[in-house]
Specification:
The chain is an alpha+beta fold. The protein has helices at residues 14-29, 61-70, 72-76; strands spanning 2-9, 35-42, 49-57, 79-87. The chain has a 4-stranded antiparallel beta sheet, with helices on one face.
Length: 101
């Protein structure tokens, strides 16, 4: 089942986010085959980070919560709030992909 993670950063924690980001990316890479999509919430400037949106396939809610508990940003105390919702993707994604390198 897909689970959507809505993860909002604490204010003024950009330096912590940058410092822990390599560990966060490695942790995400471990579930890359189960990831529907992932990326940051930003201010309207498209650069200043506000949090993260992840949608990942897990066998159940307990597994999703266990994964989040070990996630590097969670362990570093970056998030002001975390929410997990079961999610059903009913629309094929056509927009929002990064440009091809």
């Amino acid at each position: 089942m897909l689970f959507a993670f809505i993860l909002m950063d604490k204010p003024d924690h950009a330096a912590l986010r940058q410092r822990v980001r390599p560990e966060h990316k490695a942790y995400l890479a471990a579930v890359a085959e189960r990831m529907a999509f992932a990326g940051p919430f930003t201010h309207d400037d498209g650069k200043t980070m506000l949090g993260s949106l992840l949608v990942i396939d897990f066998p159940g809610r307990d597994a999703a919560h266990a994964w989040l508990a070990k996630e590097p940003f969670t362990q570093a105390g970056l998030y002001a709030s975390t929410t997990i919702h079961a999610f059903v993707n009913l629309w094929p994604q056509k927009a929002g992909f990064p440009p091809a390198a």
